[in-house]
Amino acid sequence: MYEHVKMQNDRQKSVLDELFLERKQMEEQIGNAENEIAKLNAQAEERLGDLDPEQRQEYINLQDENRALEDEIQSKRTMLENIN
Q1: Domain boundaries in the chain?
Q2: 36 pLDDT more than 80
Q3: Contact at 8 Å (CB) between 59 and 48?
Q4: What is the largest CA-CA distance in the chain?
Q5: Could you report the per-residue pLDDT of 45-60, keeping only the tens digit for each?
Q6: Cβ atoms of 47 and 55 closer than 8 Å
Q7: Cα–Cα distances in Å, from 29 out to 17, 67, 82?
């Protein structure tokens, strides 16, 4: 009986160790992706700084329009889901 329980515990420990390692690797990948995104955002901000004021304002307007359209899409998706 003791050996059976010990083997089960060892198997469960092994599974948990594997899950922990997978999670740690996934968190590391997420951290790397977040760092890359931050780097790309900084580069984009630098490029925006190079735009003349009219181009920058047009970019800001397009961003605002994009956000509004994304909100509208989400709203319509929600309405569609409620219908179904």
Answers
A1: 1-50, 52-84
A2: yes
A3: yes
A4: 79
A5: 899 889 999 999 999 9
A6: no
A7: 18, 28, 36
